[in-house]
Design goal:
Elements: H1 2-7, H2 18-38, H3 45-53, E1 62-68, H4 78-89, E2 96-103, H5 112-116, E3 121-123, H6 129-133, E4 138-141, H7 147-156, E5 161-166, H8 170-176, H9 186-194, E6 198-201, H10 204-212, E7 221-224, E8 246-251, H11 261-268, E9 275-280, H12 289-297, E10 302-306, H13 311-320, E11 323-326, H14 335-343, E12 347-350, H15 353-358, E13 367-369, H16 376-391, H17 395-405, H18 414-429
Parallel strand pairs: 1-2, 1-4, 2-3, 4-5, 5-6, 6-7, 8-9, 8-11, 9-10, 11-12, 12-13
Length: 430
């Protein structure tokens, strides 16, 4: 029964769905004539909207199983943010029902999550997979490496389309994090790609890396869809001190992020009147001797705040800084730069990967520097050059640029990213 229901793109049962049947035939004819006379108008909004309305029989929704093991409050970070944004993006949609499915092999789901995430399902044991996916039309997978789970889903539901969202290429993580023990299992992600029908990559740069590693040889289709970002401060003017020369860094303390670059730059180059506030995600999570040493060495110019979900502390961080720094040598997307743009905070950002694509329309309004992946000293000097140029900019001009740069967020608004997802789902289900 389940397989039959999922396979039917249009229900031909007479007479209850006669309208859908006739509309489907009309659309097929329309598409053929359109292509014959005008070429491929795949981007035609009206045409696509008509298809969207006929994706399923009247009264039914497409059920997307949103598979993840990262979800607030268990985990905060890029993937967890993406999960929350994806759920929110489809709230109230007449065509799509997003059903979160949490893999609880490592973390138990708190009771509060059942209230927070409507209809959430939990996989505590492999035997739970069958029940969790019995009525799912498309699986949107966000597991990095949980291979057995993906393989088991495919074995039990061979016709179920699996879209794996690649939030970061683990092979790139391994290269840029200097062979971290946490990233040397990239071959497991590769197996995930092989067992997926589609891989969604979150930037064009990621697609290039994906192809360079030879993953394009897999029998798997790819699609670039940016992360959605819903601006929080459209009609709100925040208290940003554009006269401040305090630099900020917020994020993980891993080699590829180069979080120490701002403090090393100002001290190595003896730039007076500049200090750094560093909110490190893992500062107090591990025995972080390196950062404790830096804190002691630069006690007059470096303030470290352990990362927290406490809104008051985070807001204080943004009030304490005048310029935020994004210093990674590998950045698949870049939620941090989105938040900087949203808050109208001036930003110094490495001109690579996802951030480069986000700001490409407003390059004249942000402060970028060229990354030298292979030469750390060159990277410091490139950053320093841009830092000095930024510090010389009049505060009013900094403010004007920050306001103008915010326009880069428009293409990432949920309504635009949702359309990209709808187009992909139509392609899969048609």
């Amino acid at each position: 029964m389940y397989q039959t229901k999922r396979k039917m793109f249009v229900n031909f049962t007479f007479p209850a769905t006669m309208y859908q049947h006739m509309m489907a035939i009309f659309l097929m004819i329309f598409q053929t004539l359109q292509y014959y006379f005008f070429g491929d108008f795949g981007g035609n909004f009206v045409f696509k909207n008509l298809i969207h309305q006929t994706v399923k029989s009247k009264g039914e929704k497409i059920k997307l199983g949103l598979l993840t093991n990262e979800i607030p409050p268990i985990v905060y970070g890029g993937v967890a943010t993406w999960i929350v944004n994806f759920i929110r993006m489809f709230e109230g949609d007449e065509r799509i029902e997003v059903i979160p499915i949490f893999l609880a092999y490592n973390d138990q789901l708190p009771e509060e999550c059942h209230k927070k995430y409507k209809g959430i399902r939990v996989i505590e044991h492999p035997e739970d997979i069958k029940e969790c996916f019995a009525d799912i039309d498309v699986c949107v997978n966000n597991l990095w490496i949980a291979l057995d789970t993906i393989i088991q889903i495919k074995e039990q539901f061979p016709d179920l389309s699996i879209i794996s969202v690649c939030h970061s290429l683990i092979r790139m993580e391994n290269i840029t994090n200097l062979g971290s023990c946490y990233t040397n299992n990239f071959n497991q992600q590769e197996i995930t790609f092989q067992h997926s029908d589609y891989v969604v990559l979150i930037s064009k740069a990621e697609e290039e890396y994906y192809n360079q590693f030879g993953y394009n040889l897999f029998d798997t289709k790819t699609q670039v869809i940016y992360n959605s970002y819903e601006p929080k401060y459209d009609n709100e003017e925040l208290d940003v001190d554009y006269t401040s020369n305090t630099l900020g860094y917020i994020g993980r303390h891993v080699p590829r992020k180069r979080p120490e670059l701002p403090i090393v730059s100002i001290n190595q180059n003896k730039i007076d009147g500049v200090s750094v506030v560093n909110m490190g995600v893992d500062y107090d999570k591990y025995d972080n001797a390196y950062w404790r040493k830096l804190e002691k060495k630069y006690e007059d110019s470096l303030k470290i705040i352990p990362f927290t979900s406490d809104k008051n502390i985070k807001e204080q961080y943004w009030k304490d800084i005048g310029i935020n720094c994004i210093t990674g040598i590998y950045e698949p997307f870049g939620y941090t730069i989105c938040e900087c743009l949203d808050r109208r905070v001036p930003v110094i950002v490495s001109n690579i990967d996802g951030p480069k694509e986000i700001i490409e329309e407003v390059m004249n309004n942000v402060y970028t520097y060229e990354v030298d992946v292979d030469n750390y000293q060159n990277d410091i000097q490139n950053f320093t050059k841009t830092l000095k140029e930024t510090l010389s900019v009049d505060p009013e001009v900094r403010k004007k640029n920050a306001i103008e740069a915010r326009k880069a967020l428009d293409k990432l608004r949920p309504e635009n990213i949702k359309e990209d997802w709808m187009n992909l789902l139509v392609e899969i289900l048609d």
